[in-house]
Amino acid sequence: MASPHTQEWWACPGVVYFLGVGDPVAAVKIGMLAITAKFTLQSAVRRRLSQIQTSNHEPVQVLGLKPFQSGAFPTREAEALERELHIEFSHLARFKPGTKGSEWFHSSTQLLQRISELSVPPEQLGVPRCIAVVANAPKI
């Protein structure tokens, strides 16, 4: 049986998020997060998007969100879906499993279709699609 601390974390609402980079989308991140007491779904996703954008040189966009808000252990359900999707799309992995970056996948029609089936657009949940503001490129 899981520790009380783990069970408390699992009991938080959770969300599986799908992020894309490139136009057209070349890479997709499949991740999840727990929405702890100090955050709303909107603020938790926005915070994660901000963290990921900071490490990317291209604008990162939210392709879709799959919230888990009911049941005894919503975050545990989000973790399970994330794990299932990582296995399902392992043939598209950009990095070796278990290494940094292993949540990033090459984009494909199949992956984008699955995201569309599983998730809702971020705007439907009050989350911005993108937080990056691209500057004009300097003329060299």
Judged by helices, strands and strand pairing, the structural class is alpha+beta
Uncertain runs? none
What is the residue-averaged pLDDT?
A: 94
* Percentage beta strand: 15-25%
Strand order of the largest sheet: 3-1-2-4
- The percent range for helix content is 25-40%
Number of domains: 1
What overall geometry do the principal axes of the alpha carbons give? globular
Q: How many beta-strand elements?
A: 4
Give the H and E element order. Answer: HEEHEHEH
Give the helix tally: 4
Provide the gyration radius in Å.
16 Å
Describe the structure in your own words:
Pfam families: MUG113. This is GIY-YIG domain-containing protein. It comes from Rhodanobacter caeni. This protein has a four-stranded antiparallel sheet, with helices on both faces. It is of the alpha+beta class. It is built from four helices and four strands; from the N terminus they run αββαβαβα. It is globular and about 60 Å long. It has one domain. The chain is 33% helix and 20% strand.
